Each structure stands twice: as C-alpha cells, then as structure tokens.
Description:
By secondary structure, this protein is mainly α. It contains 11 helices and no strands. The model has no long low-confidence stretch (mean pLDDT about 90). Keywords: DNA-binding.
Amino acid sequence: MTAADKRPAHRPSRRTAVVQAAMQLFASPRSDAVTVAQIAEAAGMTSAAVYYHFASKDDVLLEGLRSFGEAMVTEARRVQQDVAARGASVGEVPVRLLGWMDARADEARVWFVTSSGVSLAVEQLRRELRHDLMTVFTRAAKAARARTSAAEAAVIATALLSLLETAATSWLVEDESLTGLGRPAFLEETDLLARRITSL
C-alpha cells in the first residue's frame, strides 16, 4: 500500500460543508425560516462553529449563491465555446445548462427560485453574474448569425437568458409546463425556441 492509498478521502472544508448543508435547506419552499441552528445541525457542527466561519445565515447564502453562479457562468462559457467550435445550434447552450443543473438541483433551485428578492446583496450578486451570462449569450448570438450587429446580439442574448431563466424555473420546480411535456420534450422545445430566437 502506497502513501497515497493511506491518505483519507477528500472531505470538504468545514466552511464548504456549512455552505453545502445550507443550500439544501435554502432550497426548500420555507427558505426564509431557515436558522443558523438548523444549518449547524445539517452540517454536523455547532452554531458557534458556523458563526466562526460566517457572520450570519445571509453570508452563508451569499457564498452558496456566488459559488453556484460562478460555476454556472464557467459552464456556460465552456458550452458556448464547444458549440461555436462545432458550428452547432446555439440552442444547445440553455439545454445543456439545464442538464448541468440536474447534478446541482438544490443550488440551482436556490438561485432561480427561493432566494429571489431575499436581500439587496443577493440581487446585486445576481446582477453581476447575469451580466457575465449576457456576455456568454452575446458571443453565442454572434457565432450563430453572420454579420450580427452589437444591438441585435444584445437583444438575442437577452432573449436567450430570459429563456434559460424561465426554463430553469420550470425544470427545477417541475411545474405544469414540464410535467405536461415530460423532460425530453421540454428540452426539445427549449432547443427549438432558442433556435428561433437566434434565427430572427
């Protein structure tokens, strides 16, 4: 047995463990009622330990949202570059992001559903990361259509981002739109709508 085999499996830091536990709790419909004591219990530590890392539950929420939002922007960039390199439909971008969210359903639900309007700090963070996503979708729009003006690309990017946000909400809460179509058909319709948006 080598020294590498004897090393313990990677465990998240205590700070990360707090955020992960909190995001599961914040994903519930009663996210506003989540307490530091509940977060501590879910993370397997004391409230004092949580307060050692974070000043308040709002700070925990912000860190969780920032982590998810930055990961979403990184994934959107990766997908957009792949789509552009293959000359594929820009409709793949929102569809593949929806699939990516499946593995991060709690965090995505907090981002798109339960934390909306919670605080000015949350909304500021949303605006910053929404701007980054707009940049990704603007690049996707320019790659999808030859000779697209900056104004056209901005309008298309706005429509694609709105499509992603609306589709993600349906996807995550499994509303009537999703359940009526089923997941495969919902993804297909999302892709078709994104293609129509970019071909206008």
